[in-house]
Specification:
9 strands; 153 residues; Small Protein B, Chain: A; globular; two-stranded antiparallel sheet; alpha+beta
C-alpha cells in the first residue's frame, strides 16, 4: 500500500469517530497524476447525494503529458461503497455536527486508487488547543520514558 497524500489538518480540525475505505472514480490521466502524488485534499469533504457518495474540492493536478482530455482539477468525484454503507453514512451525517472527511488517498497492492474516509465531528477552537496540549504532554512522556530506559541500561 502506497500512501499518496494525507489530510493532516483533518486530524487537527476534527475528532475522528469511524473510518471507511472507498474506491474513487477517476477519468483519463487522473490516475497518473495521483500516482505522481499531485493531489491536494485541503478543504475537501464527502457528501451523500441521491443515494450516491460524492467527493468535493479534492484537487488533482492535470497530468503534464496528457494531450487530448484533461478533466477539471476540482470536479466532484464519485466514491464507490456498498449501498448499505452509504445509507448508514447518510443517516449519520444528517445528525448534527457529523461530516465525512477524506483522511488519505492511497494505491493498494492491486494498483487501485482508494480513499480513506472518516466520519468526524468538528472541533471548536478551545478543543483544538486542548488537543495540541495533550499531544505535547504525550510526546514529553514518551521522551522521558525513552531517556529513562536509555539511562537505566
Amino acid at each position: 500500500m502506497k500512501v499518496v497524500a494525507k489530510n493532516k489538518k483533518a486530524y487537527h480540525d476534527y475528532e475522528i469517530i469511524e473510518t471507511y475505505e472507498a474506491g474513487i472514480v477517476l477519468e483519463g490521466s487522473e490516475v497518473k497524476s495521483v500516482r505522481a502524488g499531485r493531489v491536494s485534499m485541503k478543504d475537501s469533504y464527502a457528501k451523500v447525494k441521491d443515494g450516491e457518495l460524492w467527493l468535493y474540492n479534492m484537487h488533482i493536478a492535470p497530468y503534464e503529458k496528457s494531450a487530448a482530455f484533461v478533466p477539471s482539477p476540482r470536479r466532484r468525484r464519485k466514491l464507490l461503497m456498498h449501498k448499505r454503507e452509504i445509507l448508514k453514512l447518510k443517516s449519520k451525517t444528517e445528525e448534527r455536527g457529523f461530516t465525512l472527511v477524506p483522511l488519505e488517498i492511497y494505491i493498494n497492492d492491486r494498483g487501485i486508487v482508494k480513499i480513506k474516509l472518516a466520519l468526524a465531528k468538528g472541533r471548536r477552537t478551545y478543543q483544538k488547543k486542548q488537543y495540541l496540549i495533550e499531544r505535547q504532554k504525550e510526546r514529553e512522556k514518551e521522551r522521558e520514558l525513552k531517556e529513562y530506559l536509555r539511562r537505566g541500561r
